[in-house]
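Could you help me review a protein record that somebody else here produced? Here is the record exactly as it was handed to me:
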Amino acid sequence: YMLTSLARLICSALRRTDMVIEQREQGRFIVLSPETSAENSAMLVQRIQAAAVEHLGVNVKCGVASFPDSALTFDDLVHQAENRIQRVTAVEQTHTNTNGSGPTHSDDIDELQEAELAPSRAES
C-alpha cells in the first residue's frame, strides 16, 4: 500500500515528460526529468518530500544526479544519486550524534539532495 501511494504521489508532482521507474528490489523509485536544471530538480525533490510527509507520514530520502554534469550513463547517474543519499544520511547522523536534536536542513544536506527516492518512516 505504501509504495503504491508513494508512486501516485510522485507521479502527481511530475510533468508529462518525466518518467518514474520503480526498482522494487531496492525499495526505490527513479525519476527521470529531461531538460531539468539542478535548481528545478531541487524544487521537485522538496515538493515530493513535503507531500510525502503531509499525505503519507513518511520521510523520503532523495538524491539528484544530472546528465552530463554528474555522469554520462544511466548506471553512473544512479550511482551518483546513491552516493549523495549516503552523504546526506551521514551528515544527518553526524548532526544527530553531536547535538541530539535530529536531522536539520543545513546547506550540506540541501546541497546533496537528489532525485532517487526511497521511503522511510517519519519520526513523531
Notes: The helical segments are 2-13, 38-56, 74-99, 107-112. DSSP finds four helices and four strands in the chain.
